[in-house]
Amino acid sequence: MCRNIKPLFNFEPPATGQEIRAAAEQFVRKISGFKKPSSANQRAFDKAVEEITRASSALLGSLKTTASPRNREIVAARAHDRAVRRFGR
Fold first, then answer.
1. Measured between alpha carbons, how far is 78 from 73 in angstroms, rounded to an integer?
2. Which residue did the predictor score with more confidence, 1 or 61?
3. DSSP strand E in 14-80: where?
4. SS3 6
């Protein structure tokens, strides 16, 4: 799995459409091997991003949990601390 794709479920505030689309685009980039597709592949790339965005939005909307929502700032701070410990400043 691509390390840059972050979990989007159970956050307060919930994931935005823009965040879901960005994750879908990263996923399509990863599986296609294209950072930026050629003009011949652009339509297929864009269609895949749109389909994955729709499917991801539907998934996130249908998931249920009893856990309390996570705070984005706290999760980001923890990730930053892990990165500092791993790679230094």
1. 9
2. 61
3. 70-71
4. coil
